[in-house]
């Protein structure tokens, strides 16, 4: 069932969203060659806890980190580790959730570690652009298919592909609520958006094919063909006045 939020509840969700966004930006500043993903994870956990919130992912279905940190061909759900040392040229996906006052925020960004290839930068940029194409469709009366179509239509024009095995979702009291928000779809199809829905829109875009597989650690999802993958996510409230990016921090997108 879809949990519709009141204006007051959306305001409350802004707190979780802001902490989530701030933790990501802080983590992004710490990314450089030689840093471990465990160190990045610690920075995120400390910041979230300092704010009086809880890392949403820590212990979620047994996940051992406070953030999912996924490198290069890893798509999502990478486990922070002392053994994973960032290298010059890596692209680093950081996915964070924070829980406070009864609500979650959920957001992800892809960062460059040092100098990266032009192709990698283009993948990052167009993944982000696809999110904003989708965001332009977020209004009461439009449909989930309009969002999915906007993402897919944008990225396929660059020869990229949309991960289909994982999708966006509702956000609220639970980290993952109804409905599913796919990054593919048909215009005018699917569930109708309505005032008070809060959804995580999160394009996961591969430079190569769409197929993904899970590693033996039970978490990390990688591209089947080893190609690079990029991720961009915000928690978004649907309102008559336009979408509200609950995980935005002072226009740092
Ligand atoms: Mg996320
Ligand atoms: Mg999410």
List the keywords.
binds magnesium ion; 5-stranded antiparallel beta sheet; 4 helices; about 250 residues; alpha+beta
Report on this model:
The strands form four sheets. Strands 8-7-9-14-15 form a five-stranded antiparallel beta sheet. Strands 1, 2, 4 and 5 form a four-stranded antiparallel beta sheet that branches. A three-stranded antiparallel beta sheet has the order 3-12-11, with no helix packed on it. 27% of the residues lie in helices and 25% in strands. By secondary structure, the chain is an alpha+beta fold. The longest helix is centred in the N-terminal third of the chain and has 24 residues, at 7-30. The two termini are 30 Å apart. The chain binds magnesium ion (MG) (2 copies). One magnesium ion is lined by residues 106, 169, 200, 202, 233. One magnesium ion (MG) binds next to β5.
Give the integer mean of the pLDDT values: 98
Multimeric status of the protein: single chain
Judged by helices, strands and strand pairing, the structural class is: alpha+beta
- Spatial arrangement of strands, main beta sheet: 8-7-9-14-15
User: Which hetero ligands occur in this complex?
Assistant: magnesium ion
Shape assignment: globular
**Biggest sheet overview:** 5 strands, antiparallel
Number of strands: 15
């Amino acid at each position: 069932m879809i949990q519709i939020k009141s204006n007051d509840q959306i305001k409350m969700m802004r707190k979780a969203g802001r902490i989530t966004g701030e933790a990501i930006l802080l983590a992004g500043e710490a990314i450089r060659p030689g840093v471990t993903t465990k160190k990045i994870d610690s920075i995120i956990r400390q910041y979230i806890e300092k704010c009086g919130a809880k890392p949403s992912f820590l212990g979620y279905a047994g996940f051992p980190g406070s953030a999912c940190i996924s490198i290069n061909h890893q798509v999502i759900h990478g486990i922070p580790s002392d053994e994973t040392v960032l290298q010059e040229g890596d692209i680093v996906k950081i996915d964070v959730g924070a829980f406070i006052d009864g609500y979650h925020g959920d957001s992800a960004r892809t960062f460059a570690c040092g100098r990266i290839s032009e192709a990698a930068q283009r993948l990052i940029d167009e993944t982000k652009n696809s999110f904003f194409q989708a965001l332009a469709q977020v209004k009461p009366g439009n449909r989930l298919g309009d969002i999915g179509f906007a993402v897919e239509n944008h990225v396929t024009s660059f020869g990229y592909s949309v991960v289909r095995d994982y999708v966006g979702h509702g956000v609220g009291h639970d980290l993952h609520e109804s409905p599913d928000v796919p990054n593919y779809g048909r215009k005018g199809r699917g569930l109708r958006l309505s005032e008070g829905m809060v959804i995580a829109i999160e394009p996961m875009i591969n430079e190569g094919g769409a197929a993904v597989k899970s590693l033996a650690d039970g978490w990390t999802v990688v591209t089947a063909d080893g190609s690079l993958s990029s991720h961009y996510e915000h928690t978004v409230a649907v309102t008559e006045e336009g979408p509200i990016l609950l995980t935005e921090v002072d226009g740092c997108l």
